[in-house]
Specification:
Low-confidence stretches: 1-24
Largest sheet: 7 strands, antiparallel
CATH class of the largest domain: Mainly Beta
Number of domains: 2
Distance between the termini: 36 Å
Radius of gyration: 22 Å
Structural class: mainly beta
Shape: globular
Helix content: 10-25%
Number of strands: 29
CATH architecture of the largest domain: 6 Propeller
């Protein structure tokens, strides 16, 4: 599959959507479906990123998917075949740009009063989505994407000059292949490559930043919820969200062993290897027993597990309100999705996919920086290059409108 040199940016479907709870009852979403199609047969309901509810149903024998946010329909995707002359234009583009790929299916997506065509192509089990106008011209879905929190334009006007990284202007960007659409953690594998894990597959992927390609796949178990990866000396460690660690031989990829940690939280997403080989684990949620504002980071050293640091969500909200008063509408959500230690300053960097925040800690919390959704759809991975440059990875959306990405930011301190 061709690899793009730029990142298709975006955040959530429909401009102006604010984070809010979904209608909880079955009657709420069922009513929206049956208003559009009386007698519809609902077959699947699932929650996606940022409180988006996806409802699949059949209407008069045709499959339809609705995206519902805050009780409103924000997009509709249904089976559909373009007119023959439009399909001919699309096929000619596919033959030129994707030779050998099989056209699997087409559908029509309506969002924000605009309709466009989604074409799914397949090769060797890999799927890729392409988008076209109803006239068969190439379509860029970025026009339907917008931040549900703060825009890059808003942040640029308020960004402090002493920020260690210009997080509004990446120095390099990579669009990840569809296999890594749900990338959930990264770690440096070499001078020009990173290890990646994704939510649902027990494998480590080595991705070459120079060739824009996956060069190795180290499969170590079956499906699971894998959230972090770390590398040290001849070992690779993968974190499952329940606190189970898998250790692989870095050279052969063989599974050396696994270990279920006894930890007080139920959902861990951040993993980082310190220079001595010990590990940091960051909890996304509060401990089962303890203060609801705390997000513990544990230190795993040999057989010992101890508290490395406890992050307070109230501190994050207070610091955010102080540093970004024009954006503060109330407490911000802080759910650590990645953790890393700066190789030169020793500062602790903690990423939160919720609200898209980057918190930096010295002896105490130093700064909280919001990230624009146009570049960070769901940021869940952090890694540092030896020179201090920062990599941040983001998941893509499940529909393929927003691909997964890695962005590189130059450290101002070097």
């Amino acid at each position: 599959m061709p690899h793009l040199k730029h990142i298709i940016t975006g955040a959530v479907l429909l401009c102006g959507i604010a984070a809010a709870a979904q209608p909880a009852s079955e009657a709420a979403y069922a009513r929206l479906v049956h208003e559009r199609c009386p007698g519809a047969d609902i077959v699947k309901v699932q929650r996606a990123a940022f409180d988006l509810l996806e409802v699949d149903y059949f209407c008069q024998g045709k499959k339809v998917e609705l995206g519902i946010h805050d009780g409103k329909v924000v997009y509709e995707e249904r089976e559909g075949t373009p007119a023959p002359e439009v399909m001919d234009r699309i096929r000619k583009k596919l033959d030129k740009q994707y030779p050998g790929w099989l056209l699997d299916e087409t559908s029509l997506i309506t969002a924000n009063d605009s309709t466009f065509i989604k074409v799914e192509v397949v090769m060797d089990g890999v799927e890729h989505n392409l988008y076209y106008t109803t006239e068969g011209k190439k379509y860029d879905p970025r026009g339907l994407m917008a931040s549900d929190g703060w825009s890059a334009k808003d942040l640029a006007a308020m960004m402090p000059p002493d920020e260690p990284y210009d997080l509004l202007r990446p120095d390099s960007s990579w669009t990840l292949p569809a296999l890594l659409r749900e990338v959930s953690g990264i770690a440096m594998a070499g001078p020009h490559s990173v290890y990646c894990v994704q939510d649902e597959l027990g494998a480590v992927f080595e991705y070459d930043l120079q060739t824009d390609a996956i060069t190795r796949v180290l499969r170590f178990t079956d499906v699971g919820d894998f959230e972090g990866v770390a590398a040290h000396d001849d070992r690779i460690t993968v974190l499952r969200s329940d606190g189970k660690l898998f250790t692989l031989d870095r050279k052969s990829g063989a599974l050396i062993g696994d270990r279920q940690l006894s930890v007080p939280s139920l959902n861990y997403e951040g993993l980082f290897a310190l220079p001595d080989g010990s590990l940091l684990l960051a909890s996304k949620e509060a401990p089962v027993v303890g203060h609801g504002d705390l997000r513990p980071i544990h230190l795993v050293k040999g057989d010992a597990v101890s508290v490395y640091r406890e992050l307070n969500t109230s501190d994050v909200s207070a610091t955010f309100a102080k540093q970004w008063p024009a954006l503060a509408k109330g407490p911000v959500r802080f759910s650590p999705s990645a953790v890393a230690v700066h190789p030169h300053t020793g500062q602790l960097f903690v990423l939160s996919a919720d609200e898209r925040l980057l918190a930096i800690y010295g002896d105490s919390l130093e700064r909280v920086t919001p990230l624009p959704a146009a570049d960070f759809y769901k940021p869940e991975g952090l890694a540092f290059l030896p020179n201090g440059d920062l990599l941040i990875s983001s998941e893509g959306d499940k529909k393929g409108l927003v691909p997964a990405s890695i962005l590189r930011f130059k450290w101002k301190g070097r």
